[in-house]
TrEMBL record:
<dbReference type="InterPro" id="IPR001789">
    <property type="entry name" value="Sig_transdc_resp-reg_receiver"/>
</dbReference>
<dbReference type="Pfam" id="PF22233">
    <property type="entry name" value="PhyR_sigma-like"/>
</dbReference>
<dbReference type="Pfam" id="PF22029">
    <property type="entry name" value="PhyR_sigma2"/>
</dbReference>
<feature type="modified residue" description="4-aspartylphosphate">
    <location>
        <position position="195"/>
    </location>
</feature>
<feature type="domain" description="Response regulatory">
    <location>
        <begin position="145"/>
        <end position="258"/>
    </location>
</feature>
<dbReference type="InterPro" id="IPR050595">
    <property type="entry name" value="Bact_response_regulator"/>
</dbReference>
<dbReference type="InterPro" id="IPR053866">
    <property type="entry name" value="PhyR_sigma2"/>
</dbReference>
<dbReference type="InterPro" id="IPR053867">
    <property type="entry name" value="PhyR_sigma4"/>
</dbReference>
<dbReference type="Pfam" id="PF00072">
    <property type="entry name" value="Response_reg"/>
</dbReference>
<dbReference type="InterPro" id="IPR014605">
    <property type="entry name" value="Sig_resp-reg_PhyR"/>
</dbReference>
<dbReference type="InterPro" id="IPR011006">
    <property type="entry name" value="CheY-like_superfamily"/>
</dbReference>
<protein>
    <submittedName>
        <fullName>Response regulator</fullName>
    </submittedName>
</protein>
<keyword id="KW-0597">Phosphoprotein</keyword>
Length: 268
């Protein structure tokens, strides 16, 4: 099997990581593209001694570390940096970037502490400390009123508990598109958590479209099929949670979405 065939199944999830790290589909996908271009240009430099997925993220980390927020990948000009990334710089200055990466790699991408340590070049013993630091710092800086769009009662209750445990308020729980829009208009939220399929066979995506037509708000989508919304071929969500989810994944996604002060999910 060629290297390209080995890496292909992991690309949607690398896009998820890149988008969450940058707060932007556009910039996250550009980092992924720069990573693939680097692999094509120098395939012998790809780390063959590890699992292909781990090697792919390692290459991405090399691109991210070499550019970060002060520079940009090839063919990404400084003028392309959008508002939410500029806003995030002030917060980043108060939090070690490694903390943020450790949080996303473990809580969202599911890497073990050992693998995360390999990816960000620290000792395994440091990873847990970095994750704790990231969550504590982001939670200090971000508070929001959250609308939950979810038709499964148990899942909705679980999400509501997580949201409240993080110190946020819940404006309501909607189970249909119309109910979601009505709740959003009645009590404007600062964050939306939206399932894709709703109780009356309506779409959470359509509900979000309706809400975003009225005002900007960051959105996190919840789906059992994330790869369908991580193709990189069209406007897609920046923040995505996979069902079934871990509580730590929801916490990481909420913290990262609120890291940016304006809506970051493009209309689909």
């Amino acid at each position: 099997m060629s290297l390209g065939q080995q890496l292909a199944p992991h690309l949607p999830f690398l896009r998820r990581y890149g988008r969450a790290l940058t707060g932007s589909q556009t910039h996250g996908d550009r980092y992924v593209r720069a990573t693939l271009e680097a692999i094509v240009a120098a395939p012998d430099e790809f780390p063959r001694e590890v699992d292909p997925r781990l090697g792919l993220y390692r290459m991405f980390q090399a691109i991210w570390t070499s550019t970060n927020y002060d520079e940009t990948p090839e063919n990404m000009s400084a003028g392309d940096l959008d508002g939410q990334e500029s806003i995030a710089r002030a917060r980043l200055a108060r939090m070690t970037p490694l903390s943020r990466q450790a949080l996303l790699l473990t809580a969202m991408e599911g890497f073990t502490p050992e693998d995360a340590a390999y990816l960000i070049d620290v000792d395994t013993s440091e990873v847990e400390l970095l994750v704790t630091e990231a969550l504590a710092e982001i939670e200090k800086q971000t508070r929001a009123r959250v609308l939950i769009i979810e038709d499964e009662p148990i899942i909705a209750m679980d999400i509501e508990t997580i949201v409240r445990d993080l110190g946020h308020d819940v404006t309501g729980v909607a189970v249909t598109r119309d109910e979601a829009v009505a709740l959003a208009m009645e009590d404007r939220p600062g964050l939306v958590l939206a399932d894709i399929q709703l109780a009356d066979d309506s779409s959470g995506i359509d509900a979000v479209k309706d809400i975003l037509a009225e005002f900007e708000v960051p959105v996190i989508f919840i789906t059992a099929f994330p790869e369908r919304l991580l193709t990189g071929e069209r406007p897609e969500p920046t923040f995505l949670i996979t069902k079934p989810f871990q509580r730590s994944t929801v916490k990481a996604a909420i913290a990262q979405a609120l890291f940016f002060d304006q809506a970051t999910v493009p209309v689909i």
